[in-house]
Amino acid sequence: IKASVIDGDDFDEQAAANTEESKAKSALEKLQEDRKSLPIYPHRDPLLQAINDYQVLVIVGETGSGKTTQIPQYLHEAGYTKKGKIACTQPRRVAAMSIAARVSQEMGVKLGHEVGYSIRFEDCTSDKTVIKYMTDGMLLREFLGEPDLASYSVIMVDEAHERTLSTDILFGLVKDIARFRPDLKLLISSATLDAEKFSDFFDSAPIFKIPGRRYPVDILHTSAPEADYLDAAIVTSLQIHIQHPPGDILVFLTGQEEIEAAEELLKHRTRGLGTKIAELIICPIYANLPTELQNKIFEPTPEGARKVVLATNIAETSLTIDGIKYVIDPGFCKMKSYNARTGMETLLITPISKASAMQRAGRAGRTGPGVCFRLYTLHNYHTDLEDNTVPEIQRTNLANVVLTLKSLGIHDLLNFDFMDPPPAEALLKALELLYALGALNKLGELTKSGRRMAEFPVDPMLSKMIVASDKYKCSEEIITIAAMLSIGNSIFYRPKDKQVHADNARMNFHTGNVGDHIALLKVYDSWKETNFATQWCYENYIQVRSMKRARDIRDQLVGLLERVEIELTSNLNDLDAIKKAITSGFFPHSARLQKNGSYRTVKHPQTVHIHPSSGLAQALPRWVVYHELVLTTKEYMRQVTELKPDWLVEIAPHYYQMKDVEDAGSKKMPISRRQS
Ligand code: ADP
Ligand code: MG
Q1: 304 CA distance to ligand 2 middle (Å)
Q2: What's the pLDDT tens digit per position in 52-105?
Q3: Please, are residues 273 and 299 in contact by the beta-carbon 8 Å criterion?
Q4: C-alpha–C-alpha distance, residues 315 and 359, integer Å
Q5: Could you report the per-residue pLDDT of 464-500, keeping only the tens digit for each?
Q6: Contact status, residue 38 vs residue 322, Cβ threshold 8 Å
Q7: Nearest 5°: CA angle at 661, between 656 and 665?
Q8: Residue with more model confidence, 419 or 632
Q9: Residue 668: pLDDT above 60?
Q10: Host H or E run for residue 294
Q11: d(Cα 86, Cα 562) in Å, to the nearest integer?
Q12: In 3D, which of 513, 581, 627, 288 has the Cα closest to residue 522?
């Protein structure tokens, strides 16, 4: 069946953007005027009509047309929130926060009141909240508490084209509840592309098109491949700044580290130019950017200056920055890839897809004609770039999602309504892991332990570690470690000019080769002893912002512990008990030292190394358990702790046999006595 297409063009009438006399207007009035100048505004009434007429609607419109910020407001104005909340999902946390902030401004309300957001470990909503921006992962978790999402009147799955794992799972779940909740409205919105596919999946739902305004964009390619795209991006930015007419620059980079490096390089090189050039305002934007700095990218550029925004993929479709005239596209992004055979997941810097390249270029032509500088050749574009990005569900570890689905009572995963099914091998691998962790029984049913694990919004190995802390009477320590691990690797601060001091400070926490997990625990506990003093963080080269976040996360984990009836108990004097709890979650991540100083993973043998930032990088214990693998120049284990090999057999007898943990060549000696 072919979907009917409702074309917003039929109703096109330019919004009256009268520039009245330079009457002083309140900020709110100005914002209301801005709203009316968005491409979506002339389509407001037909859109509301279509939503009224159909239960499921696919909405397609160019990025920046106003879908995310306006549609929930239109629905609110039309009275939908009298019947229930409006959820609008975003694949990225920064987008959820930033858009909620913007919409609360437009509505003249305090963020967290009528308009709020919910992201993992951070709930900025209240009883008053009627428009709720949230990550797709958070809506997925809401199914656990409210399987029919009864408190919502509208679900808007936004940025559907991103095809994140959670969004893909949501598709199947919301399609299902829409069948028995005829009052529920379902909106699937996307920045062009694949609209037909969404429509087909939702039983030929009609497609509502919002015509965008787009100006021509000149796309330039390099004549030869660039050896160092970061450097090329800097050089290009400066060339634009010095030689080209006014207009802001948007540079696409792959992640925080790269963005910080670029920021430093740009500052360094513009300093040399002194007052000969106009001011260049550098604005970074990435997932972990502190909230205070996030709004800087939206501030209008002062007359005579130029803004350069250094962004991750987030600026591709999630966030629109007005005034961009030049786009620099190195052609790469960070992408997760998963090896279902070994069960290993890695983040790799990978060429983007052609669809992404087109989106990126389009960012230059929103407010006027623009230019896109691609730092790759036209030949590269044609031969090296795939047409579309592979949906995340086909290149990721599924353990977390499988546990969530099992908790929702969905047992037959092979027949779940997937838009694109995951590889069967990856599903099996997830089931195997959950079985090994004790979350599922032999029949694939959720166990009591699995039910407890599912309460925690973290990966199953981490939630298993938390649940296991009950047995080892060290839940106090383990949730601290879990909270610290959730921060990623932004705890320690290492300024270029003080690296030696910073490294010494860091090594203080590693005294006795306690391992990285215990070191994180010591960092937190020492900070707590100073009553969470900022000064202490400075003195110890620790990022106070990360620590505060860890404290927030920890508080939430304490709340969840109560829910699963695990008592808070401390066992700080028995480090082995803490390490055993860690091993209970992470035993699949064990590795053994080789003669040459590298390691071999025990299951699915693979050569790996201890990351140089680890406290055990010099100590090289014979057996270790690690938190994660990262691939940079080599396959590195990050966050490493020593373990005793007999623990593996003790903790996971269904997973490891004696022969797995015996050292070759000395088979006769019992391992327990040979431990160093
Ligand atoms: P879409 O979802 O269709 O891509 P959006 O609703 O996100 O469009 O954006 C509409 C407009 O709102 C854009 O012009 C964008 O620049 C503006 N906008 C969004 N967030 C902010 C913000 N935090 N500050 C200022 N402007 C914003
Ligand atoms: Mg949007």
Answers
A1: 30
A2: 999 999 999 988 899 999 999 999 999 999 999 999 999 999 999 999 999 999
A3: no
A4: 10
A5: 999 999 999 999 999 999 999 998 778 998 888 888 9
A6: no
A7: 145
A8: 419
A9: no
A10: helix 291-294
A11: 30
A12: 513
Contacts of 390 (CB under 8 A, 6+ apart): none
Helix (H) or strand (E) holding 421: none
| Residue 280 near residue 305, CB atoms below 8 Å | yes
Cα–Cα distance measured from residue 580 to residue 674, given in angstroms and rounded to the nearest whole number = 18
Dihedral Cα 536, 542, 544, 546, nearest 10 deg? -150
Distances (CA, A) of 518 to 205, 487, 501, 530, 624: 53, 15, 21, 19, 13
Instruction: Give the tokens for residue 260.
Output: 């910080």
Longest dimension (CA), the chain: 93
| Ligand 1 atom at minimum distance from 158 CA | 2
Which residues lie below 8 Å from residue 616, measured CB to CB, with a gap of 6+? 510, 513, 515, 516, 610, 624, 640, 641, 642
68 close to ligand 1 (CB < 6 Angstrom)? yes
Pocket test of ligand 1: the residue of 292, 320, 359, 367 to mutate, having most ligand atoms within 8 Å of its CB, is 320
- pLDDT value of position 4: 52
- Cα-only R_g, the chain: 26
Query: Quick one: which atom of ligand 1 is closest to the CA of 210?
Result: 3
Whole-model pTM?
Answer: 0.89
Check if the beta carbon of residue 658 is closer than 8 Å to that of residue 649. Answer: yes
Contact, 161 vs 167, CB < 8 A? no
3 state SS of 630: strand
Place of tokens 């330039």: 220
Model pLDDT for residues 270-328, shown as the tens digit of each residue: 887 777 788 999 999 998 887 778 888 889 999 989 999 999 999 998 888 889 999 99
Q: Coil, strand, or helix at residue 232?
A: helix
Per-residue confidence (pLDDT) for residue 602, from 0 to 100:
92
CA dist 34 and 36 (Å) reads 5
* 603-638 b/e (C-beta count within 10 Å ≥ 16 → b): beeeebbbbeebbbeeebbbbbbbbbbbeeeebbbb
**434-453 pLDDT per residue, tens:** 999 999 999 999 999 999 99
Q: What residues form DSSP beta bridges with 329?
A: 374
Each residue of 131-187: pLDDT tens digit? 999 999 999 999 999 999 999 999 999 999 999 999 999 999 999 999 999 999 999
Angle between the N-to-C axes of helices 44-53 and 67-77, in degrees from 0 to 180, rounded to the nearest 10: 70
For residue 536 and ligand 1, the question of a CB distance below 6 A is answered with no
Average confidence score pLDDT of the chain: 90
Q: Residue 16 pLDDT > 60, yes or no? A: no
- What local confidence, expressed as pLDDT, does residue 337 receive? 85
Cα–Cα distance measured from residue 609 to residue 614, given in angstroms and rounded to the nearest whole number:
10
- Which atom of ligand 1 is the closest one to the Cα of 102? 23
99 lines ligand 1 (CB under 6 A): yes
- Name the residue of 59, 60, 74, 102 whose CB sits within 8 Å of the most ligand 1 atoms, as the mutation to test its pocket: 102
Q: How confident is the model at residue 6 (pLDDT cuts 50, 70, 90)?
A: low
Residue type, 401: V
Nearest-CA neighbor of 118 among 146, 99, 145?
99
**Which structure tokens are listed for 473?**
């009477």
